[in-house]
């Protein structure tokens, strides 16, 4: 089992390689942010409060069957007359099935790429040529949180999602156990950022999970998260902060400089 798990993590590392490299693509925007709130990641209305509303739907290679939910990307458009050098940062909350662009983003994020006073000019582009790279998510003093999904049915079924995952990592495995117990049950990824199990321990619950923070992954242990009387729709603090930066699986490309082509 340990060998299989290691091979799985090596596979995950290979498919997430070169995240920090600069990529060339195009980006379009949704005229209404509500189009991203019911996104494939499952964040629902909470998403509007993420990253100042600068949200993104990403293509399958970046969505990664839900593992890419919550990832942050810096992007800028290439028209230097109206677009800033810094661009903006977006957070993935949905899946983009349009193969003409790597991202479809909120109009707020689209305008955030503009130079001062040029937001309307950028918006008129409709579809913009961009370059982008993945960057760490920074939630300042906010800890990783677990939300109990409304679909949970105590005591038979538990569905959760992770919020405010910092750093540049992906959660690839989750276990749950009663506080004080070593009898762990695994959760499966239901869809997007939603994990679930029908083997729900009684009492207060602790979690452990694996994130890609290098080639072998890294375990985190939240020793006491859900109280015995946990409730649907409530967000619980794990007491942990994730700030790791996943290692690259390719030649170094993150030299800190943006190069327009």
TrEMBL record:
Domain Expansin-like EG45 span(s) in chain numbering: 38-142
Any one Pfam family match given in the protein's UniProt record, by short name: Expansin_C
Cited CDD domains: DPBB_EXLA_N (cd22276)
Domain Expansin-like CBD: 156-238
Domain of life: Eukaryota
InterPro entries noted in UniProt: Expan_Lol_pI, Expansin/allergen_DPBB_dom, Expansin_CBD, Expansin_CBD_sf, RlpA-like_DPBB, RlpA-like_sf
Signal peptide positions on this chain: 1-17
Keywords: Signal
PANTHER family: EXPANSIN-B3, EXPANSIN-LIKE A1-RELATED
Similarity section: Belongs to the expansin family.
Stated name of the protein: Expansin-like A2
Gene source species: Datura stramonium
């Amino acid at each position: 089992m340990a060998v299989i798990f290691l091979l799985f993590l090596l596979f995950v590392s290979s498919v997430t390689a070169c995240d920090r490299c600069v990529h060339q693509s195009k980006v379009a925007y949704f005229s209404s942010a509500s189009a991203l709130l019911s996104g494939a990641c499952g964040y629902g209305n909470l998403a509007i409060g993420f990253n100042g509303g600068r949200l993104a739907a990403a293509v399958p290679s970046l969505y990664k069957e839900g593992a890419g939910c919550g990832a942050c990307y810096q992007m800028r458009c290439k028209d230097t007359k109206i677009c800033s050098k810094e661009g903006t940062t977006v957070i993935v909350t949905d899946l983009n099935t349009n193969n003409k662009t790597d991202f479809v983003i909120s109009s707020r994020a689209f305008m955030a790429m503009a130079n001062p006073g040029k937001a309307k000019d950028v918006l008129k582009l409709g579809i913009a040529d961009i370059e982008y790279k993945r960057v760490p998510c920074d939630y300042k003093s906010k800890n990783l949180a677990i939300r109990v999904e409304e679909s949970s049915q105590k005591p038979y079924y538990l569905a959760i999602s992770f919020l405010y995952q910092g750093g540049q990592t992906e959660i690839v495995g989750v276990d749950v156990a009663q506080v004080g117990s070593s009898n762990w049950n695994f959760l499966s990824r239901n869809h997007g950022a939603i994990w679930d199990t029908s083997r729900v321990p009684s009492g207060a619950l602790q979690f452990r999970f694996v994130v890609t923070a290098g080639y072998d992954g890294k375990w985190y242990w939240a020793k006491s998260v859900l109280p015995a009387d946990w409730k649907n729709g409530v967000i619980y603090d794990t007491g942990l902060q994730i700030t790791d930066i996943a290692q690259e699986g390719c030649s170094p490309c993150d030299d800190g400089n943006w190069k327009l082509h």
